[in-house]
Write a structure and sequence with these properties.
mainly alpha; c-terminal domain of poly(a) binding protein; 70% helix; rod-shaped
């Protein structure tokens, strides 16, 4: 008796993979074995770089906040510590946006942070 082969299932699987690799260059989108490996790598990089993107944006926000604080005569770490003591629960993304688009409000935040910082002790001799 002739062996039953699952041509329709295999063809559908290959078609689905080729659709996912649309836009890949050269044989990477139409040769099945190479497309399978390339798609696996692409998904690995996509997972890794979603995490990296979050780190990069956080770094950007910190740089922007630091620049805005330095223009007002305060360090980033002092500013964040002062806001923490003042119980201001704004994240770095929103602080960065305020620093860029609403300098007057950021001035008030800097003054608030400065007011809540502990007074420096007298210089010890």
């Amino acid at each position: 008796m002739v062996r039953a082969r699952s041509k329709a299932t295999t063809a559908a699987r290959k078609k689905r993979l080729r659709k996912l690799t649309k836009g890949f260059r050269l044989s990477r989108h139409n040769l099945y074995r190479m497309a399978k490996v390339t798609l696996l790598k692409a998904r690995t990089y996509a997972f890794r770089d979603r995490k990296a993107k979050k780190r990069q944006f956080r770094r950007l926000w910190i740089v922007r906040i630091n620049a805005a604080c330095r223009m007002r005569g305060m360090r980033y770490s002092e500013f964040m510590y002062g806001l923490q003591l003042a119980s201001v629960a704004l994240d770095r993304k929103s602080l960065s946006e305020i620093a860029i688009h609403d300098p007057a409000a950021f001035d008030k935040l800097v003054e608030l942070a400065r007011k809540h910082l502990p007074k420096p002790e007298a210089a010890k001799k």
